[in-house]
Design goal:
181 residues, Purple Acid Phosphatase, chain A, domain 2, 6-stranded mixed β-sheet, 5-stranded mixed β-sheet, 11 strands, Phosphoesterase, metal-binding, hydrolase activity, hydrolase, PdiEstase_YfcE_CS
């Protein structure tokens, strides 16, 4: 199974176009959005190319392939523009191996406030805009970074689960971090 991850688009059309292009190139079966899709939020600058309605139109074309969770900048108004559900605080995806992916944005559940996980599960979240793919002992922590507002000196990125390998990848194709699950 191949899964594509993106987070923290924050309404930027140019970044979303790059994300969709990378999704197509990846050959992934599903497109996972880890929140903060349309709104830039009050703590972030308005991104260049801010066009939330156009971002919604573009993403709606993939509604049958998207699994999404609510970010701290997402609201009921955003849901009115999107043809796929975005208001759930988390989703759980069962992998063929029996491991679970706990998908969330990161503002409610994160490595400092863990959801119920079993050994080998993956906690996947955005929110920090920092790329992470590492074993935490009992579970794996994964964050695809941000395609629009990367932080900590990082470049814009997305994530990919290919078999048992979780990777964060730049839009230039460089693998930034990777781990096995």
């Amino acid at each position: 199974m191949k899964l594509f991850f993106a987070s923290d688009l924050h309404g930027c059309l140019e970044s979303t176009k790059k994300v969709v292009e990378a999704y197509h190139a990846s050959g992934a079966e599903h497109f996972i959005l880890l929140g903060d899709i349309l709104n830039h939020g009050p703590r972030n600058p308005v991104p260049e190319g801010y066009a939330p309605a156009q971002v919604a139109e573009l993403l709606n074309q993939y509604k049958d392939n998207i699994i999404s969770v609510r970010g701290n900048c997402d609201s009921e108004v955003d849901q009115m523009l999107l043809d796929f559900p975005v208001m759930s605080d988390f989703a759980i995806v069962l992998l063929e191996s029996g491991q679970r992916l706990f998908l969330t944005h990161g503002h409610l559940y994160n490595q400092n406030r863990l959801p119920p996980l079993k050994a080998g599960d993956v906690l996947a979240h955005g929110h920090t805009h920092l790329p992470v793919a590492q074993s935490m002992g009992e579970y794996v922590l994964f964050n695809p970074g941000s395609s629009t507002i990367p932080k900590g000196g990082n470049v814009a990125s997305y994530g990919l689960l290919d078999g048992t390998e979780l990777s964060v990848i730049s839009f230039d194709g460089d693998v930034l971090v990777t781990t096995q699950i």
